[in-house]
Specification:
single chain, alpha/beta, 6-stranded mixed β-sheet, 17 helices, 25 strands, 29% helix, binds zinc ion
Length: 555
């Protein structure tokens, strides 16, 4: 029987993993006007073959719904790719070589900015100004590390900012100092802005170029949608996204999480409402608000319930920093929830997670149930008592799975300072799933690689991928009971993240009527050893049936 309307495209001879509710498989998909019109066997879809239908032979490769990154900073990461980019540096020597080469190649730059160094490349995670002074003595250098919670600066930068031994630590950060109290060259959290406020901001052109670069890279990794975890504040990208969408250059679907200024209160809500109204163009929507509840463990700014331990294992006085907590957080979340915003929390350690859940609970009590799908990103340390609360409150666990493995940042800078039993509460993805929690997955790029296959690899194995660019000495499985199975990890990166992006009716699975946002791999992940997940390669990425990336035999 001939089809009434021939398809534009048939994808055949594949291992089509649909991620529908039944987790069903097929071998072929038909696409018409950007939508999936048939899913089935090669024979089933043949009725959609017309004279102008393009046929793509997947040659046994896997076809998946496009990956969605639930927490990333693509525009900023793209700008970093254009600056002094240290992400590929494996150690301190390579950082120095890159900075020296960049400074030499950019004699016109008044500042050396960029970043992406890894804390484990430097003793204590705190590089010193002397190293930079030796290679860039004349210009200020400001280089945030890859997690964005600390920055490496030289003496000129400290001078420009007026930071001396007499400068007190700001309330939301810390100036690293030597034994004599002199600023030593690393600034933590809020202390970064003492220098950053003087550094040149990326221009509108820089942001636009960065976004384009980032989008192309993410498409090459099979990503078709993401939630930009900071739009606003120092990442002034609302207009960047709107302009890209208006020009028709935003091929990805993007949810923007508008920045909650932690130094202000409810008076900023009208501005957020205005930004949401302006930020709804094409495939872009700014419907989420990002609240940074705490910092990170490695510099002891993540908010913990019991104090961190010192290097000798003795309790300190430090319980980290809650940038926004307690009643302030409850009030903010309740009002944002009432205005229809989704709240995207940065909630890293167990006190921050608890306070974020308390805030969602407060909002539920005042506003009643709704479908905003508030989510907690990072969830590095979760107190066991809080695990069942996610489901009760309808809160989504937004997991950065690449961090859930032994490597030096974990083994040397985290576990000893969390202590027993708390270090075992890290990245409890298995426990959350067993408690019925919706799991979304995201990279936090440029903090770490945005490659979904690398992240799925760690979610499943809890061991770093063999091709990870840094030396990993410890290949012991990290908390094996928290591993999740491959199907669940894939669902996290597709339907789970689509759910958090409110894109689950349109995307997230391969089903008739849904958008043809698709990713083809060179192999069926289920037919290869789990230790090889990260070795799979993306061959084709499509958004609404249009190719946004193609490689290998599908190029
Ligand atoms: Zn982030």
């Amino acid at each position: 029987m001939p089809a009434s309307t021939p398809a534009d495209l048939l994808l055949v001879n594949g291992a089509v993993y649909t991620v529908d509710a039944a987790r069903s498989w097929a071998s072929a998909v038909a696409v018409k006007d950007g939508r999936v019109v048939a899913v089935g066997t090669d024979h089933d879809v043949r009725e959609h073959l017309g004279p102008r239908t393009e046929v793509v032979d997947l040659r046994g490769g896997m076809l998946l719904p496009g990956f969605q990154d639930a927490h990333a900073h693509p525009a900023a990461a793209g700008v970093e790719m254009l600056q002094c980019d240290l992400h590929e540096a494996a150690d301190a020597e390579e950082c120095v070589a890159i900075i020296r080469a960049y400074a030499a190649a950019h004699p016109e730059a008044e500042w050396i900015v960029g970043g992406g160094w890894s804390m484990d490349a430097f003793r204590g995670g705190t590089p010193t100004k002397e190293v930079l002074d030796a290679i860039v003595p004349d210009r200020p250098v400001f280089l945030p590390n890859r997690d964005g919670h600390g920055a490496w600066v030289n003496s000129t930068a400290l001078k420009v900012a007026g930071i001396t031994r007499d400068t007190p630590d700001p309330s939301d950060g810390r100036i690293e100092r030597d034994a004599l109290g002199e600023p030593s060259g690393t600034l933590h959290e809020g202390a970064m802005s003492l220098v950053d406020d003087h550094a040149p901001e990326p221009t509108a052109d820089d942001w636009a170029e960065g976004l384009a670069k980032a989008q192309a890279y993410l498409h090459s990794l099979g990503i078709t949608a993401w939630q930009d975890a900071i739009v606003g504040g120092s990442y002034d990208t609302l207009d960047t996204y709107v302009a890209a969408a208006e020009r028709g250059e935003l091929t990805a679907r993007v949810i923007g999480a508008l920045w909650w200024d932690r130094h202000r209160g409810l008076e900023q809500i009208p501005e957020l409402l205005d930004a949401r109204a302006r930020g709804r163009v094409g495939r872009f929507e700014a419907t989420s608000v990002k609240i940074m509840v705490d910092g990170v463990c490695e510099n002891f700014t993540a908010a913990v319930l019991e104090p961190y331990l010192d290097a000798e294992g003795r309790p300190t006085e430090n319980r980290g920093i809650a940038f926004v907590g307690g009643e302030d957080l409850k009030l903010a979340v309740t009002h944002l929830d009432a205005e229809g915003f989704q709240v995207h929390f940065h909630a890293l350690a167990e006190r921050a997670v608890r306070e974020a859940l308390d805030a969602v609970e407060a909002a539920r009590r005042v506003n009643g149930p709704n479908d905003h799908r508030h989510h907690l990103a990072h969830i590095q340390v979760v107190h066991p008592n809080d695990i069942p609360r996610f489901r009760r409150l309808g809160a989504v666990a937004n997991a950065q799975a690449l961090w859930a493995a032994h490597e030096s940042q974990m083994d040397d800078l985290t576990i000893p300072f969390l202590g027993e039993p708390r270090w075992r509460w890290q990245y409890p993805f298995g426990s959350l799933l067993r408690a019925g929690v919706v799991l979304a997955m995201g990279s936090d790029w440029s903090v770490s690689s945005p490659d979904p296959l690398a992240q799925i690899h760690v979610a499943v194995n809890r061991v770093m991928p063999p091709d990870y660019p840094y030396t990993v000495d410890n290949r012991e499985v990290f908390l094996p009971e928290e591993r999740i199975d491959l199907a669940t990890a894939i669902a996290g990166f597709t339907m789970g993240s689509a759910y958090v992006n409110h894109l689950d009716r349109l995307t997230g699975s391969i089903e008739v009527g849904k958008a043809a946002d698709l990713t083809a791999l060179d192999r069926n992940l289920f037919e290869h050893p789990l230790e090889e997940i990260s070795q799979a390669r993306v061959l084709l990425t499509m958004v609404e049936g249009a190719r946004v990336f193609a490689a290998g035999n599908l190029a």
